[in-house]
């Protein structure tokens, strides 16, 4: 075998070397039941008059684009998938043919069919994080950090950076002083916490990924809210876990349904956002928090409480830490995750996880196999910012209140037919459009220089929440006003195709 530095011979076709998508699939094959759990109802009323094979191909394509099905993953055999879905084999064969024709799948005799992306296409997750300067971005609910705050923090830590420069720089648990600072904040908020209960991570999403990777195995059930945070859903799905959704309505959580689901499904883990829920903005009442802790304890379900948005309390006092609602000794199964992304800056990749010291040690061991340790510089910057957290968060809350008012005023003026409930905190509105046109509207709004996030991205089941949009109020008021004007123009653009037809018949399947 030639080494990696060998120059390719003139007679070797370049495509055979350069196009990895032509190779056999990699990783664990996707089972038919796993795929079925991700798919919408292909035969019910929501499917309309569209042929089942087109609906199946469209749904798989959407899962690939969203990253919910990884690339180069082997799809189930046609006969197996047909049996699981209750469709004819001819229907599944036609769907796979359409995926291959459109560039979303490849096949090889003996290797089956696997997922790919057509040339020039990207995951929607990459598009959401790439910000062209010409567009107003309402797809990410994050704010910026004042430049003087960041430069002051950098100046303050300069001597500490010099001290750390002569060390290996690996701190799998996180810098001891940062762990102590995070623990102290929990204690001051009403939950006694020791530094050995804290693991510093590269954002809250890594904390969730570590918990899922340590505590769950492929095929395990995970209870999730519906709707919920998109990146958390992606993390859970990529771990090959089966989501068990429980609804979060405009009125909040139904604890009877949650408790019944815990009894019947007995999920391995539950992922919940009790504080200013993303995307609905709901705040879970204290009584329900205690009930949820007891119910998950009875079902032996690990409970991950995402408190990333906890500090952004606009109209109410900041809630106490979720685990503080447990009876004495009843919170060992509760894992709390948080970060500085929403309260400070998304570019500062500092998150944390609070759990028992034993679990923290086990998770730190898993973390070493992933990225060794977090950035020392980021952790040092976090220290002075945490010391000023009360001051900085208070300013962020005032800003959020003003920007929320600006967004609401613009919507009332330009799109009065839409409706929403004013969230008591958080960074976005969960808007009801009155009709299932969110995906098509998002595509059309992009042509007007505005990027918005359709509600289906937050659904635990594909095809849901097409009548919703998540609209963040993290940009300046004037920018939000301009964005709403552009979205209104896109909504009323009668020169284009009706939005409803754009939803029912995507352009790539026309």
Automatic annotation (TrEMBL):
Residues 1-11 have a biased composition (Polar residues). PROSITE patterns: HTH_GNTR. GO terms for molecular function: transaminase activity. InterPro entries: Aminotransferase_I/II_large (IPR004839), HTH_trans_reg/aminotransferase (IPR051446), PyrdxlP-dep_Trfase (IPR015424), PyrdxlP-dep_Trfase_major (IPR015421), PyrdxlP-dep_Trfase_small (IPR015422), Tscrpt_reg_HTH_GntR (IPR000524), WH-like_DNA-bd_sf (IPR036388), WH_DNA-bd_sf (IPR036390). Residues 50-118 form the HTH gntR-type domain. Keywords: Aminotransferase, DNA-binding, Pyridoxal phosphate, Transcription, Transcription regulation, Transferase. CDD domains: AAT_like (cd00609), WHTH_GntR (cd07377). Residues 1-29 are annotated as: Disordered. In the C-terminal section; belongs to the class-I pyridoxal-phosphate-dependent aminotransferase family. This is PLP-dependent aminotransferase family protein. The lineage of its organism: Bacteria, Bacillati, Actinomycetota, Actinomycetes, Kitasatosporales.
């Amino acid at each position: 075998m030639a080494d990696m530095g060998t120059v390719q011979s003139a007679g070797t076709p370049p495509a055979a070397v350069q196009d990895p998508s032509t190779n056999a699939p990699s990783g664990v094959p996707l089972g038919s039941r796993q795929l079925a759990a991700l798919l919408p109802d292909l035969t019910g009323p929501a499917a309309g008059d569209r042929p089942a094979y087109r609906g199946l191909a469209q749904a798989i394509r959407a899962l690939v684009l969203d990253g919910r099905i990884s690339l180069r993953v082997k799809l189930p055999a046609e006969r197996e998938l047909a049996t699981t879905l209750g469709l004819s084999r001819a229907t599944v064969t036609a769907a796979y043919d359409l995926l291959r024709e459109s560039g979303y799948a490849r096949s090889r005799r003996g290797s089956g069919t696997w997922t790919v992306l057509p040339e020039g296409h990207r995951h929607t997750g990459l598009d959401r994080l790439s910000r062209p300067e010409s567009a107003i971005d309402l797809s990410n609910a994050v704010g910026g950090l004042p430049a003087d705050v960041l430069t002051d923090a950098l100046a303050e830590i300069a001597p500490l950076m010099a001290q750390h420069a002569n060390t290996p720089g690996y701190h799998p648990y996180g810098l001891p002083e940062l762990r102590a600072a995070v623990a102290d904040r929990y204690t001051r908020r009403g939950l006694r916490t020791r530094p050995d209960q804290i693991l510093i991570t590269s954002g809250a999403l890594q904390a969730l990924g570590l918990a899922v990777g340590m505590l769950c195995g492929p095929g395990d059930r995970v209870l999730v809210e519906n709707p919920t945070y998109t990146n958390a859903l992606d993390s859970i799905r990529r771990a090959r876990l089966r989501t068990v959704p429980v609804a979060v309505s405009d009125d909040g959580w139904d604890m009877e349904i949650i408790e019944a689901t815990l009894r019947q499904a007995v999920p391995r883990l539950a992922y919940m956002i009790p504080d200013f829920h993303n995307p609905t903005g709901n705040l879970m009442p204290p009584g329900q928090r205690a009930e949820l802790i007891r119910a998950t304890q009875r079902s032996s379900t690990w409970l991950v409480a995402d408190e990333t948005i906890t500090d952004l309390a606009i109209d109410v006092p900041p809630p106490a830490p979720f685990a503080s609602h447990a009876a004495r000794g009843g919170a060992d199964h509760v894992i709390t995750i948080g970060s500085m992304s929403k309260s400070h800056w998304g570019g500062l990749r500092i998150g944390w996880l609070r759990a028992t010291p034993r679990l923290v040690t086990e998770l730190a061991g898993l973390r070493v196999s992933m990225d060794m340790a977090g950035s020392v510089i980021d952790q040092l910057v976090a220290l002075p910012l945490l010391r000023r957290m009360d001051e900085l968060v208070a300013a962020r809350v005032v800003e959020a209140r003003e920007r929320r008012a600006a967004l609401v005023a613009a919507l009332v003026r330009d799109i009065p037919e839409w409706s929403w409930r004013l969230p008591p905190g958080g960074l976005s509105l969960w808007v009801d459009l009155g009709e299932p046109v969110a995906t098509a509207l998002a595509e059309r709004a992009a042509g007007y220089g505005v990027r918005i996030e359709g509600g289906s991205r937050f659904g635990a089941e594909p095809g849901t929440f097409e009548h919703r949009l998540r609209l963040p109020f993290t940009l300046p008021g004037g920018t939000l006003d301009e964005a709403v004007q552009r979205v209104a123009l896109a909504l009323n653009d009668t020169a284009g195709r009706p939005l409803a037809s754009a939803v029912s018949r995507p352009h790539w399947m026309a």
